[in-house]
């Protein structure tokens, strides 16, 4: 029996890329029979200002006007998306700070998040923290489909899938989260790197058998020892296989109240040119 997604949660802001997230979420929702909720979450402008007695009511009103305009643009994009054929969506919004904690809490009730790669060129105007994606994933424990901010999105996401595999918790969670897409893919390629498997006597379990039990016949490419520049290699190999989706674990650790990404995850999140489904 095929797996399916029941609830998608897509992050909405006023950027042009938010329109692509809406389209991808509705397309995926249509294929999966899933409900789609668009959640508007942008940090209010006054939160980003340093405290100063010189900031009077005029400045505060101007900042509210900017926030209202961003909200109007996002709502307009949402309404325009609803005007096109496809499944319906519901609207929700977070207007107070901190937005990431509230978004992560809503993520508890979704099977998959649809988020956007951080665009450094719009960091000062978007109202979305640069670490929004990784923070929401780690705080909620939910997988996310992350869309690049540059390049054209594929007509269908998940027809040609590349799995970046090594025997880790994060990679296993990403594969399980991607199962509804993998079962509908035309081609699944596994790029595997050697890792430390626990020694098990008798009939041991492995990813190939797990995929087959779920009706997926994958093409395997053993890559040997993991290279240092794994992120660049992953993106290059995904391009070679004409993949429209990369499935991988998101690695990192907390340090002094700051989330520090691993090198491979950081490279992919910074340089991705195709959709990436990640889990932490």
Would you mind describing this structure in some detail?
With 280 residues, this protein is α/β, with parallel strands linked by helices. 38% of the residues lie in helices and 21% in strands. It contains 9 helices and 12 strands. The chain has helices at residues 17-32, 57-83, 99-107, 123-126, 132-140, 169-182, 207-213, 230-240, 263-271; strands at residues 7-12, 35-41, 90-94, 112-116, 144-147, 160-165, 187-192, 219-222, 245-249, 252-255, 258-261, 276-279. The strands form 2 sheets. A 10-stranded mixed β-sheet has the order 3-2-1-4-5-12-9-6-7-8, sandwiched between helices. A two-stranded antiparallel sheet has the order 10-11. Strand 10 and strand 11 (258-261) form a beta hairpin. Helix 1 (17-32) runs parallel beside helix 2 (57-83), helix 3 packs across helix 5 and helix 8 (230-240) crosses helix 9. The longest helix has 27 residues, at 57-83. The chain is globular and about 70 Å long. The mean pLDDT is 90.
Overall radius of gyration: 20 Å
Q: What would the principal axes of the Cα set say about the shape?
A: globular
Question: In angstroms, what separates the terminal alpha carbons?
Answer: 26 Å
Q: What's the rounded overall pLDDT mean?
A: 90
Largest sheet: 10 strands, mixed
**Order of strands side by side in the largest beta sheet?**
3-2-1-4-5-12-9-6-7-8
Per DSSP, the total helix count is 9
The unreliable regions are none
Helix content: 25-40%
Give the total of beta strands.
12
Element string (H = helix, E = strand): EHEHEHEHHEEHEHEHEEEHE
Q: Strand fraction band?
A: 15-25%
- Name the structural class: alpha/beta
